[in-house]
Design goal:
Elements (H helix, E strand, L loop, with lengths): L23 H15 L5 E5 L14 E4 L5 H11 L4 E7 H7 L1 H10 L4 E6 L29 H4 L5 H6 L6 E6 L3 H19 L5 E6 L3 H4 L3 H15 L3 E4 L6
Parallel strand pairs: 1-2, 1-3, 3-4, 4-6, 5-6
Antiparallel strand pairs: 5-7
Helix pairs in contact: 1-7, 3-4
Length: 248
């Protein structure tokens, strides 16, 4: 019998803990497929962050290191500089990367560290009961913004891709989405390219993936996917923000 679809070798055969409708699982598969197709899972080191993805080390079939909250880019820098032949990636949520880890991601990007960052943006703190995140949209309700995010009180959402693209260090920065099949395919291409940028020694690469959090959004999985399309993408437009013509 011909095998049409199967689990990537770089993904362990274990059940995931994510809530129904969460797209972390899709993001994991895209990373694993990229590792498989590039044939690099045997020399890859992933850096797990803190947040919903804290135990991603249980899912990826490669060497993994658990970093303190927000420090994944710093840990990745140490691994890459000490083991330059390794392929190093971080897997981080918006609270981890854009709040407590703001300094780490900005300076790793500014230095042009030859690492790959997978950034999951679901506009909320998922694991810790749904507080406002740096990426929370204006008027979005969270446990710490019960009347919605108000600019005068809480500031504006941070567009991480646009911010990092202003720096000279990054080689490739792209934002993709996981809300439908067409965009998932584009997201896979972006993730794979980010790893190819690192393999070519071009420097810092990051792919932001717009993701869902049905539990903390108080939505069904289907409605959560529609929210990504109708509310998130208008504020977080998809596309390449740096390295559009970069050949790898």
């Amino acid at each position: 019998m011909a095998v049409i679809f199967q689990k990537p070798k770089a993904l362990k055969d274990t059940s995931m803990h994510y809530c129904p409708g969460c797209t972390h699982g899709i993001a994991h598969r895209l990373v694993a497929e990229a590792l498989d197709e590039l044939g690099i899972e045997g020399r890859t080191v992933g850096i797990a962050s803190v947040g919903c993805s804290y135990n991603s080390y249980d899912y990826f079939n490669c060497d993994m290191i658990q970093a303190p909250h927000g420090r994944a880019p710093a840990v990745a820098t140490g691994v890459k500089r000490s083991k330059p032949d390794c392929v190093v990636f971080t897997y981080q949520g918006d609270g981890d990367l854009a709040a407590i880890g703001t300094a780490e991601i900005v300076h790793a990007a500014a230095r042009g560290e030859n690492i790959t960052v997978i950034f999951i943006n679901n506009t909320i703190y998922g694991m810790t009961s749904g507080q406002m995140a740096p990426t929370t949209l204006l008027n979005q309700y969270t446990t710490t913004t019960p009347y919605g995010r108000i600019a005068d009180l809480h500031g504006f959402p941070i567009n991480v891709c646009e911010m990092l693209a202003t720096l000279q260090g990054p080689a490739y920065i792209e934002r993709a989405s996981l809300h439908d099949v067409k965009n998932i395919k584009k997201a896979k291409e972006a993730v794979k390219k980010a790893f190819k940028v690192q393999l070519a020694g071009k420097g810092f690469s990051m792919v932001e993936l717009l993701s869902t959090c049905p539990t903390n959004w108080g939505m069904s999985p289907v409605d959560a996917l529609k929210r990504v399309r109708d509310e998130m993408i208008p504020h977080y437009p998809l596309g390449v923000f740096k390295g559009e013509n970069l050949e790898v």
